[in-house]
Write a structure and sequence with these properties.
The protein is mostly beta strands and 50 residues long. The strands form two sheets. The protein has a three-stranded antiparallel β-sheet with strand order 1-4-5, with no helix packed on it. A two-stranded antiparallel ribbon has the order 2-3. A hairpin with a 2-residue loop joins strand 4 and strand 5.
């Protein structure tokens, strides 16, 4: 399992680009050619994370 923290909305350079429209923590795990994402709002201010 690996992770990144997106402080501002944008796209990471990891795994071809993970894009988010709000700051968040992203954990990801590659399983049998599939990528599972786990998102977390570290600010605890968002009602929806997409």
């Amino acid at each position: 399992m690996s992770g990144i923290v997106l402080y501002i909305n944008g796209t990471s350079k990891i795994k071809g680009g993970i894009t988010e429209n709000q700051p968040c923590d992203v954990l990801f795990e590659e399983k049998e050619r599939q990528l599972e994402l786990f998102l977390s709002d570290a600010t605890h201010k968002l009602s929806i994370l997409s």
